[in-house]
Design brief:
This protein has 361 residues and is mainly beta. The protein is built from 4 helices and 26 strands. It starts with a helix and ends in a 5-residue tail after the last strand. Strands 12, 15, 16, 17 and 18 form a 5-stranded antiparallel beta sheet that branches.
Length: 361
């Protein structure tokens, strides 16, 4: 089995052929200039931190990197918010907002997910809980992957809920201490769009998840809670997507929203960073743009298509200047009112939206 996996990894490097962009990618996104950025920091929101017992401006410094979903005909956003206090550039918590048009949001006054005096404090404090992605399980349970940062190591964790307000933490997505204590982020679970909801989908009797923020790796699960990373014969995490010299994604690649199964394959929108020395010479060094990749619908390890260029890149003032300059970080995607809404963090400081009327088969 491991030799087969290694062979597939080698095939991945050579399998991609030129394609017409409209054959398999989700395109046509227009940034909504009339309303963008749709969310900015709010220094009036106060939260009594359960660890320090201090009142903090929990979303006063920056808001960015949101997940999104449709529930009960309402579009919800889970977003990362930073205060001014945490010693690692502010402690991150996750807030909840809702909308009836996908453009204008009402925020709940308190975060719904945050570091607490619980068994996971050592993983989440005091960097915080970051960068959520969320899908629905067939039984109605919502599963959120998120990044916990302790100031030294980023770890991919998982939590569940039925109502988006009351959460159960499950800790690391991984079971083995070797995997738990490796740098891991950004869990994009393979799903299918059903009646405007992204529902996790099994392939060959397993759930699948892309993760990582250097190369992209892949893991599988029976229940969406406990995951096993696919490994090479030498015990390393299997790489299924890597940076490319001379292109917009020359420095790193990182999953965006949950991957979606289509008639063409498994569509993964991914984030990337440009390294000017050996990357795209038209983009500033460190620019975060977004590309798209397509994996085999029966074998999520096998890459079959990859965009030659980005479809999304910073070109607005609020995307170019902020906590981290030149960043469009796409993370929330949902189908709502017959359109696709793509939510993204801008310069690690604000949240914006782009909309596409395209249909996915």
């Amino acid at each position: 089995m491991r030799k087969i996996i290694q062979l597939l990894a080698v095939i991945n490097m050579f399998c991609c052929s030129p394609e017409k962009v409209d054959e398999w990618q989700l395109i046509g996104f227009e940034k909504q200039d009339d309303v963008n950025p749709i969310m900015t920091p709010d220094t009036s929101s106060l939260f009594r931190d359960p660890i320090t017992q201090r009142l903090v401006k929990w979303e006063g410094k920056d808001v960015f990197n949101p997940a999104s979903l449709v529930k009960d005909d309402t579009l919800f956003m889970l977003y990362r918010a930073e205060d001014f206090v945490g010693k690692y550039n502010g402690t991150s918590r996750i807030g909840l907002a809702f909308s009836f048009d996908g453009l204008n949001f009402t925020r709940l006054p308190q975060p719904v997910f945050y570091p607490d005096e619980d068994e996971y404090k050592g993983l989440e404090w005091e960097g915080g809980s970051e960068d959520p992605r969320i899908v629905k399980r067939e039984d109605g349970l919502y599963v959120m992957t998120y990044t916990a940062y302790d100031g030294n190591l980023a770890r991919l964790l998982v939590a569940t809920t039925y109502d988006l307000r009351n959460w159960k933490k499950h800790g690391s997505v991984f079971q083995d201490s070797v995997d738990i204590n490796q740098w891991s982020k950004s869990g994009s679970i393979v799903s299918r769009s059903i009646d405007d909801e992204l529902v996790a989908e099994k392939i060959d009797q397993k759930y699948w998840m892309y993760f990582g923020d250097t190369d992209l790796f892949i893991a599988q699960s029976n229940d969406l809670i406990r995951w096993d990373p696919v490994k090479t014969e030498t015990g390393e995490w299997l790489k299924v997507l890597s940076p490319r010299a001379g292109k917009f994604d020359s420095d790193l690649v990182e999953p965006g929203p949950p991957a979606i199964t289509t008639s063409n394959g498994i569509l993964l929108i991914y984030n990337s960073r440009n390294r000017l020395a050996d990357g795209d010479q038209t983009l500033p060094d460190g620019t975060y743009s977004a590309g798209q990749a397509l994996f085999d619908p029966t074998n999520p390890i096998k890459l079959i298509r990859r965009s030659e260029d980005y479809f999304f890149t910073p070109d607005k003032p609020y995307e170019i200047t902020g906590q981290v300059n030149n960043v469009c970080f796409v993370e929330g995607l949902c189908h709502y009112k017959n359109q696709w809404f793509l939510y993204y963090g801008t310069a690690d400081s604000k949240i914006a939206v782009a909309v596409s009327p395209q249909e996915l088969n």
